[in-house]
Amino acid sequence: MWERLAKVRVHLLPKTWLTRVKMDAEDAQHHVYSVEIEYIGQVPQLEWCSQIVLKLSAEEANLDEPWLSIKRGDQTSNRVLIKLKCQA
Predict the structure, then answer these.
(1) What are 21's strand-pairing partners?
(2) Phi-psi category of 9—alpha, beta or left, where left has phi over 0 and alpha has psi -120 to 50?
(3) What is the pLDDT of residues 23-59, one digit of tens each?
(4) Labelling 9: which of 43, 53, 73, 84 has CA 20 to 30 A away?
(5) From CA 81, how far away is CA 25, in angstroms rounded?
(6) 2 near 55, Cβ under 8 Å?
(7) What's the pLDDT at 33?
(8) 87: helix, strand or coil
(9) CA distance linking residue 6 with residue 12, whole number of Å
(10) What is the per-residue burial (b if ≥16 Cβ within 10 Å, else e) of 9-34?
């Protein structure tokens, strides 16, 4: 399952995003999952906005409303609550 997130002002150098950025998901029971980031880049026709595409494991895809946070080096973003829906 893939989830696409839009986040304003996520500025990264093209070749460093995979090694420097991490994403965590936390469920209602406070279990933390390290989420695989598949892509980070600019949203077409919205130069001010970047997108993050996540590849969720089967266990992560079953999370209903996880809190997500982005980590880059020693900086951590605010947490964002999202709703996951499976596409048929």
Answers:
(1) 72
(2) left
(3) 999 999 999 999 888 888 778 888 777 778 888 888 8
(4) 84
(5) 9
(6) yes
(7) 92
(8) coil
(9) 14
(10) ebeeeeeebeeebbbbbbbeeeeebe
